[in-house]
Amino acid sequence: MVATATPSETHAHDIKDLYAHFIGGRRVLPDGPADLVRENPAASNQTLGGFKSADIEMVKATVRTAAQAWPTWRNTAAPSRGKVLLEAARLMDKHREELARLISLEEGKAVKDSRAEVQRSINITEFMSGEGRRFGGYTSGSEVFSKFAFTTRQPLGVVACITPWNFPLAIPAWKIAPALLAGNAVILKPASSTPASAVRLAELYQEAGLPDGILNVLAARGGPAAEALLDAEEIRAVSLTGHTSTGRHVAARLAARGIPMQGELGGKNAAVVLADADLDLAAAGIVDGAFGSTGQRCTATSRTIVVESVADKLLDHVVTRARRLVVGPGVDETTDVGPAVTADQRESVLKYLEVGQHEGAEKVYTAQLGDLPQGHWLAPTVFDRVTPEMRVAREEIFGPVLSVIRVRDTEAAFEAANAVEYGLAASVYTRDVRAIFGFVDKVDVGIAHVNQPTLGGEVHLPFGGVKASGIGPHEQGREAIDFFTKVKTVYINFA
């Protein structure tokens, strides 16, 4: 195992150098042949970088490093921890263009979407930094006059954050910030296809003043090494974003040890369009939600549920807007839709296109890709006359595919929105205030949008889903710190 130069001693923006682990404040390259090799999704004949994935021994060593470093950070005052986060946010802002281009090169998304991801990472880190001044519990009156009663919040110790490839900077950022602010040491396991963005984030935290060993990035494929991280005695909590099946497996494994888990899982989000909707507004939100970031978002608009009386008009608006989208390399400023992240992801989406046609869905639009370099390209596609029982209406596709479901009225629309196992996000387009509050009350999701896309949210409010879309408490907002702390109730008898 070789420890390479610290970020200040080398060119941190060179992507091939970022293909490494980050342990104890340094990039680390294990001995042995590279088995984690990343190709450019927009030019698959080009290699971005590669290195040897972590093995069980490396996982154990990293856990020890974090555990040994943790007491120093635990004993740092919460406002001082907040200052480190604020400086990290400032550094992200300083390097925002570098980070956006890194995301687009590694993950493939259009650089305009990557810039928005960087801004979200800055926002969550900046917001959470302010919680350093509010960190703690509360006082309460006691039943006994001569007692003083209060609560305090304390860090857990070493926690693991497991993140996917679709937001390689923002999802690590919104898990790391509350975990660090609460006084924990963190081991981040990013997706094996996008580790460079996570390493660069860790380096910026290091530059911001985070002590060595408090934030470590360990790239490991699933299997024995990943299981070793879950099973490590020192790991006191796990925050995971990923497939529902993965989340349930991890939750079951952790439950055997009584270790809490926070899981942000799959989605099959619906945009509901009622008869009185502004169809231009709805179409704009649907196209952005379905095809932005190549549809590779947990909050992507995978379904549009529309009242039959306006379905044809809405479909015309959607297809007209979809025709304007430019498919191309993410780093190009003109690109709206980049490639799929990997060849396997592309194949998965293509199989769903076959499934949809086999089930009887009507393919009303598929973009023409034109002359593109060798890469994992997908054409934005719209299916019409999809029925709720079809697989393309029920299963998470995670690609630029929109299924249009026609219904008779408002009540049928809400029923169709709930007719999936997932419950992350949904939106409704209407001018009817009664329909708006009916939607908020009846549609079973964690995030409800009115007259806007199904996408995202604001960092000072909770983010997460219900049903198969989430396990445990939601992320972001002030509540995010709760998961990464334990509460102690204190009674002082001063009689």
How would you describe this protein?
With 495 residues, the chain is of the alpha/beta class. The chain has 2 domains: 2-265 and 470-491, Aldehyde Dehydrogenase, Chain A, domain 1 (3-Layer(aba) Sandwich); 269-458, Aldehyde Dehydrogenase, Chain A, domain 2 (3-Layer(aba) Sandwich). The protein has helices at residues 56-74, 78-94, 96-106, 111-130, 170-181, 195-207, 224-231, 244-255, 279-291, 308-322, 343-359, 391-394, 410-417, 433-442, 480-483, and strands at residues 2-3, 21-23, 26-29, 36-40, 43-51, 139-140, 147-155, 158-162, 185-189, 215-217, 235-241, 261-264, 269-273, 301-307, 362-366, 381-384, 401-407, 422-423, 425-429, 447-450, 466-467, 470-471, 485-493. It has a 7-stranded mixed beta sheet, sandwiched between helices. A 6-stranded mixed beta sheet has the order 10-9-8-11-12-22, sandwiched between helices. A hairpin with a 2-residue loop joins strand 2 and strand 3. Mean pLDDT is 96; it is low at 5-12.
